[in-house]
Amino acid sequence: MKKIKISGIRQVTNLSQVEVFSRPARLANPFQILTLLGENGINLEFIVIHGQTDETLDLIFGVKRNSIAATLGLLRGMEKKFGMEEVRSQDGVGMVSLFPHRNQATVIENFFTAFQEAGIKLLSISFSLAAISGLIEENLIPDAVNALSAYFELPG
Amino acid sequence: MAKIKLHNILHVSDQALLSVRLEERRAEFLPSILYALREEGISISLIIQSMDRNGNFILTLATPQHHLDWVRAAFQEGLDLPRSTPPKVRDNVTLITLYGPHFGEIPGIASRILSALATDGVEVLAMSASVNSSLLMVPQDSLAKSLRSLNRIFEIPAK
Fold it and tell me: Quick check: B50 and A128 CB within 8 A?
């Protein structure tokens, strides 16, 4: 199998994942949540919002672990005001980002396949112009990088 | 408030947004569906995934509108979805991409984007942000309004 050449792989450790679940009937625009965090200097490494094509709105984001207590502290008690039905968090999360030369379909396919073959559960996937990023359990990052290296070729 | 400098704002219209919720065990079929899309030459302009509160996968992807029927059938059959729970589809959407360079360093960019769009009544159908860019799906008929909103808070190009 010919490997796909990529620009690089980036790993970010010491993250926590926060999931905010809402029902449309009580939906507050997620900007209220993100504004609250931004105004308090909490930077998000990763954001995914699934919108109104489904029956719920889900906001998932990754924050540095040293910000998770502050993040949950800010969100706690705001459930009603912001229309949040449930807030969950998971520590021990890391992010693996793959930087392809272009986001062709093969890259997405091989990204999924590599994780699946390695038995690594993707907690969430984010897509950007330059990268495709996955949140996974942090202790699986070395396995994930190995799995990706079977399908992708790093420069040098 | 000072404008945030960006490299560029790009947009691609005539897209369809497809969302599917599936049990975790069915996720093993995703690579073969993506392979089939590649073989058909169908591009994916956005793909995001997360888990719902019951541990099911939620997958949202954008594809050119003219490929929608093929993509919908591929997911319906490839995942063996019951006829009663087809993928949810939103037709005629536009993908807007905001491209860096400072996203990782300035807290609150996403909230400013969503706030500006909400102020102007733009419905954000999906969003993905990481590293140095942010991708938004909005209804196609909101594109002009969305760009006006975004140009209030961003300056292009970044010097």
Answer: no
In tens digits, what is the pLDDT along chain B, a chain of 159 residues? 788 888 899 999 999 999 988 888 888 888 899 989 989 999 899 999 888 888 888 899 999 999 999 999 999 998 888 777 788 899 999 999 998 776 767 778 888 898 899 889 998 889 998 878 899 999 999 999 999 999 999 988 755
Same domain, A30 and A46: yes
Residues A68 and A79 in one domain: yes
Distance CA B20, CA A100 (A): 26
What whole-number distance in Å separates Cα of residue B52 and Cα of residue B21? 8
Residue pair A47/A19 in contact by the 8 Å Cβ criterion: no
How far apart are the CA of B31 and the nearest CA of chain A, in angstroms? 5
Model ipTM value:
0.87
Residue B40 in tokens: 């058909």
Q: B113 is written with which tokens?
A: 């984007």
The answer to whether A60 and A19 are in contact (CB under 8 A) is yes
Residues 82-121 of A with CB under 8 A from B: 86, 88, 95, 97, 103-106, 108-109, 112-113, 116, 121
Domain end position, chosen among A90, A124, A139: A90
Is residue B158 within 8 A of residue B9, CB to CB? The reply is: no
**Is A9 in the same domain as A74?**
no
Task: Tell me the residue range of the domain where A80 lies.
Answer: 16-90
Q: How many CB pairs under 8 A join A and B?
A: 174
Which contiguous run of DSSP H or E holds residue B34? helix B30-39
- Cβ distance of A35 and B115 shorter than 8 Å: yes
Among B24, B112, B130, the residue with its CB nearest the CB of A128 is: B130
Number of folded domains that form chain A: 2
Rounded to whole angstroms, how far apart are CA atoms B123 and B114?
9
* Exposure of B111 in the CB half-sphere (CA atoms within 13 A): 18
In this structure, are residues B130 and A128 in contact, taking their beta carbons and an 8 Å threshold? yes
